[in-house]
Every structure is written in structure tokens, then in C-alpha cells.
Amino acid sequence: MSSHLKVSANGAISQNFYAAGELKGNLLSNRPAVLANATAAYTPFSALQFRAHVQHVGKRYIDSANSEENVIAAYTLLNLGASYRWKSLKVSAKVHNVLDSLYVTHGEDWGWGWIAYWPGATRNFYLTLSYDL
Questions:
Q1: Which of 15, 46, 51, 62 could share a disulfide with 70, CB 3.0–4.6 Å?
Q2: How confident is the model over 120-133, as pLDDT tens digits?
């Protein structure tokens, strides 16, 4: 691989379930079985860098009963960024959720028919200016 290109990845596959009681064998709520991240950074010369990041979160249940109607769907996000450094000054631009995916980050079953969902952020932009002292 080129010294200008760096690629990294990490992930987890897990099964978090109740070991005893009436819910024995059911998956714990809000615990995805799959989490994965991959990042590629390309630095054509020392002052300039481009980055791409992909994040995947697997499906999960909102409730301990593992009701199919209370499933939070899996989602995958693409984030892009670039930065340029000149002496002690650095400017960075980032776009999160480039594909403008609609997704849910968390959900709770509060009982009595009350279910709450926390939506994820739609496409958003960051511009950062930093100075090293």
C-alpha cells in the first residue's frame, strides 16, 4: 500500500442475551450484534489530507421481548473530510452522513404503548479552523 494511503478498520460481533428467567435466550435491548468502522486517509503531500469513514450499526430490538414490530433497522453511514495545514494553521471540512440516510440511533419501550425513538442526524457539515501554539 502507498505511504500516502492509510486504511484502518475495526468491528465487533456479539450476542448479548438473557441467561436466565422468563426472557432467557432473548437479546438485550438496544444492543446490536454487529458494529463496524472503516477509514481511509489519503495524504498526497504533508499539508493535505482526504478522509473517508464508513460506519455500520446492526439491527437491534427496542424491547427485551424481542418484538419484531419494535426493531431498529441496521444503518450504514458515509462521512467524508479534508484538511489542509499551513504552518501552525489548519482548516478542516467534514460532511457527515453524506448520503443523507434516515436512521434511528436509539429507542425505548416505556410501556403502556409508549415507544420513543431518537433519530440520527441528517447530512451535516463542519468547518474547523485551528491554530497550534
A1: 62
A2: 999 999 999 999 99
